[in-house]
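Shipment paperwork, digital attachment
Item: protein structure file
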Amino acid sequence: MSKRTILVVTGTRADYGLLRWIMQAIDDSPKLELQIVATMSHLSPEFGSTYRDIGQDGFTLTEKLDILDPSDTPQAMANSMAKGVSGFAEVFGGLKPDMVFLLGDRVEMLAAATAATLCQLPIAHIHGGETTEGLIDEPIRHSITKMAHVHFATTRSYQKRIIQLGEHPDSVLHVGAPGLELLHKVDLLSRSALEESLGFKLGSPTFVVTYHPVTLEARPEGEAFGQMLAAFKAFPTAKYIITYPNSDARGRVIIDGIQAFEQQHAGHVFVTPSLGQLRYLSAVKHCDAVIGNSSSGLIEVPSLGVPTVNIGRRQLGRIAPESVVHCGESTVDIVAAMQKALSSEFRKPLAGIDTLYGSGHVADAVVARLEAVSLNDILFKSFYCPVLK
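Attachment content:
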């Protein structure tokens, strides 16, 4: 009996960190064959050429698809998607997978989903049903849900929302967040090992910072980011580990600001395009708080009992545990939130809180469904609406 071929698309350091153990479980399955297509910022030297991490983890990269428009505008993202639809159609035609596996809500995932739909390939999707009202990702995510045939939800609430979108309950499996899987697979680095790996001494306090563009905001991206950097002046002895934003439009003004901040605060700031999941979660474990507007602050960080300061509207609507301090984008608001996150009163009850995103045992459940699901007539979907039945 021939193996069922699952083609996994990865476009960034972030989604690869979440997909890593699912990919490994697919590769280890006697019933499945893994294909990997790396695209978008994975292939960009500016963002660390992170496709190399895939090979270093022992995987064989099946295909590289370069679709990233080098300019920094919303139009560039549209151009990247257009190139992606065409490019993925060619890739799918050559590799002939049985199913395409996608994560999340980025433009390269929408391009892959569109091409797969037109090429009549079934789609499996994880991290659907979620809401981020400050981002263009919101309609992209729900669009992929409507094109997908097998759904993996990270919370019960998101499972219900996928069904609310008209997907049949039998096609929607609650598995939890894949980003928590590493905590069960690998020992995180000790403080000294992390410092040696980074070539950077942690301090007291130490903050891990990731700030992404807020793609639906009308005002200049650097304005809110500048407010955050100004807030850091209230903590003059602090150390900062800062990662680059993703490759969304208007991200380069943030990169320029990060580089300038690093130069102005030599010895107190470590900057990198990508830490990788092991070093990132190790840095989180040994820091005092995570600052920014990344989904990791709401999903992975709470599992380590570390506070998150979530700035602005980028993650508006996403389920957040009690360890997350939400704040506005002004310097005053950010300073107050950072002070709250550092306070012993806030930190004391965080150990063992309910992260709301599951236990982290995701990959085996995903692979079991990928092995078992029937592909006969899977492309024929009816809109599930029990009220009308």
